[in-house]
Design brief:
With about 150 residues, the protein is of the alpha+beta class. It has 4 helices and 4 strands, in the order H-H-E-E-E-H-E-H. The structure holds zinc ion.
Amino acid sequence: MARPPASSPDARRRMMGQARRDTKPELALRRALHAAGLRFRVERAPLAGVRSRADIVFGPARVAVYVDGCFWHSCPEHATAPRANATWWAEKLQRNQDRDRETDAKLVAAGWLPVHVWEHEDPLVAADRIREHVLARRTRREPGAQ
Ligand SMILES: [Zn+2]
């Protein structure tokens, strides 16, 4: 479906839709994870064949973290439906959701854990949640642990 004319310069920028890198919520989360003593890579495709890069990747633990924008990923609390070009937007945002689910399914099938963090989440709380996953998955792999 072709992109209809934008209703404003701001809308146009959103419609062009380049996902921004190193957004403020991403940086805050990375800082919190670092402070928690975790090491990771950023902006990596965890799997061959998965098109979208994860924002934060823990290779050995196989945890892929995505910081999802409230608008682009239709956060239940802050999702907004643009009124101009409503149908086009509805389809585009639906495709985003479908793609997220598809990516998650591929990761799970390959033994990865996808973790989604909303951009509105407290980075410290999110970092805690991620840390627990990473530590649990590291421990499980160590022979003779516990
Ligand atoms: Zn939100």
